[in-house]
Amino acid sequence: QVHLVESGGGLVQPGGSLRLSCAASGSSFSITLKGWYRQAPGKQRELVAAITSGGSTNYADSVKGRFTISRDNAKKTMYLQMNSLKPEDTAVYYCNIQRVIDRYDYWGQGTQVTVSS
After folding, report:
1. Which of 12, 61, 108, 114 qualifies as a cystine partner to 6, CB 3.0-4.6 A?
2. Coil, strand, or helix at residue 3?
3. Can you count the helices (H) and strands (E) in the chain?
4. Using an 8 Å Cβ cutoff, are 96 and 37 in contact?
5. b vs e for 22-50, b when ≥16 Cβ sit within 10 Å of the residue's Cβ?
6. Which pLDDT score is estimated for 26?
7. Which DSSP string corresponds to 15-66?
8. b/e burial code for range 11-21 (CB count within 10 A of at least 16 → b)
9. Could you tell me how far CA 38 lies from the centroid of its own chain?
10. Smallest Cα–Cα separation from 96: which of 25, 30, 40, 47?
11. How many CB atoms lie within 10 A of CB 82?
12. Could you give the CA distance from residue 54 to residue 75 in angstroms, rounded to a whole number?
């Protein structure tokens, strides 16, 4: 089994910053750290940031210039640095990884990010 542990969420003021972490463990299969999604109450889950096997990054238009995705493949850990946070960033954030052999998706448990005054 692959276990994903997310951390770093919390309550922050508008304009503040948070860094989310996603650590993978427990699998003998090779995995690829893929990206981050978020889901706000009453809304559909959306892709926030993705990173390719070559290290190229892609972002949702709503977070471009504010969020940065990175990873440490040796540590099997992925990060999302979130700066200049806005109330509309409030959501549960989920990390996504894939098993290399068949592209099977695994998801983190979710971490709550709340941006409010």
Report:
1. 108
2. strand
3. 0, 11
4. yes
5. bbbeeeeeebbbbbbbbeeeeeeeeebbb
6. 82
7. T--EEEEEEEES-SS-EEEEEEEEE-TTS--EEEEEE-TTS-EEE-TTTTTT
8. ebeeeeebebb
9. 8
10. 47
11. 26
12. 17
Q: What is the longest distance spanned by two Cα atoms in the chain?
A: 45
Other C-beta atoms within 10 Å of 115: how many?
Answer: 19
Cβ(77)–Cβ(5) below 8 Å:
no
Q: Residue 108 is encoded by which pair of tokens?
A: 């983190």
Per-residue pLDDT of the chain (117 residues; tens, 9 = 90+): 788 999 999 999 999 999 999 999 887 788 889 999 999 999 999 999 999 989 999 999 999 999 999 999 889 999 999 999 999 999 999 999 999 899 999 999 999 999 999
